């Protein structure tokens, strides 16, 4: 018998090629934004200036000192910028780090956020915030940080370097895979996750052409939205806990860490996660799901193992306890020190994920 609780999240989603040109100004009008704090890194600076041109007179200040994993000092500077500008809305244009900075402002000011994502991170549809203080990453959930409106424009991802696009898309695949067994999974999150994988895989198969192929970009960004939505309601499972600990402890790049670790967690859980396995296989169109997921990044610039990201083999033992301490109790395969150690050793070396299966 099926039993579940589904806590739906609010949010207005506007999706379409060119939507930042055709729809963003109207969305800001709907929210009566008069004094906008624009958050965008220098890399996305020109793009942000171009798309803000129609309402430049309402951009009260721009904050560009975004850093990965939102250091608390950066959050404070962004909040100060919002206060000094007397901002009534935060507009973020960029990847997960930029969205995360906007969320940090919303967390203490309560200002509404309009998010324009330029990667496949998915943070824009979650109520989760994250901040880093002296190398330790803290996350929390607060509905104040959930963007009021998200404008998805696949045209903006055309400039993503191919290797980053692949890693970011695999980060989104991880959101979908994990949504099948995360603590608050439900038939709703599973349906969204399955369709998310389908779109992401279609986009990944055409990734070589995604700079010029608008259908591929659309598939990837739609898949990323579905992935973020599934993750937002289902929560974090073993995979996210592992990546969270590794990212915080060794300052590893977010998307690449997810892309490397995913096949190993999938191999670890698959033997005890029948429904997830069947649905992932259906979405992938293949029954050898661990190999299939690993092959999504093969030859497309995803580093082979965590060792290639600069983590040392001796580091593995230093994080095993931290991971088992926060791993969900109802993970499909029981999470043991030995199990996590073996998983990390394989992921570090980039060896066959099948060896992780137990
Ligand atoms: P990122 O935002 O750090 O961006 C990575 C790089 O890509 C940056 O150098 C950026 O300037 C560049 N970039 C972004 N868009 C581009 C584009 N269209 N063209 C060219 N370059 C572009 O990385 P990310 O992977 O998007 O986000 C990672 C962060 O998001 C992590 O801190 C992670 O914890 C967080 N995150 C949070 C949640 C949540 O729910 N709170 C969910 C997912 C990710």
Using brief descriptors, characterize the structure shown.
single chain, 358 residues, alpha/beta, Rossmann fold, Dehydroquinate synthase-like, alpha domain, 2 domains, six-stranded parallel sheet, two-stranded antiparallel sheet, 49% helix, binds nicotinamide-adenine-dinucleotide
What do you see in this structure?
This protein has 358 residues and is of the alpha/beta class. It has 2 domains: 12-157, Rossmann fold; 162-349, Dehydroquinate synthase-like - alpha domain (Dehydroquinate synthase-like, alpha domain), CATH 1.20.1090. 49% of the residues lie in helices and 11% in strands. It contains 14 helices and 8 strands. The strands form 2 sheets. A 6-stranded parallel sheet has the order 1-8-5-4-2-3, sandwiched between helices. Strands 6-7 form a two-stranded antiparallel ribbon. It is globular and about 60 Å long. Nicotinamide-adenine-dinucleotide (NAD) is lined by residues 41, 43-44, 68-69, 94-98, 100, 118-119, 121-123, 126, 128, 130, 156-157, 159-160, 164, 168, 254-255. This is Maleylacetate reductase. InterPro entries: ADH_Fe/GldA (IPR001670), ADH_Fe_C (IPR056798), Alcohol_dehydrogenase_Fe (IPR039697), MAR (IPR034786).
Report on the biggest sheet.
6 strands, parallel
Structural class: alpha/beta
Low-confidence stretches: none
Q: According to CATH, what is the class of the largest domain?
A: Mainly Alpha
Helix content: 40-55%
How big is the Rg?
20 Å
Report the β-strand fraction as a percent range: 5-15%
**Tertiary shape:** globular
**How many angstroms separate the termini?**
28 Å
Organism: Nocardia puris
Domain Fe-containing alcohol dehydrogenase-like C-terminal: 166-348
Protein name: Maleylacetate reductase
Domain Alcohol dehydrogenase iron-type/glycerol dehydrogenase GldA: 10-154
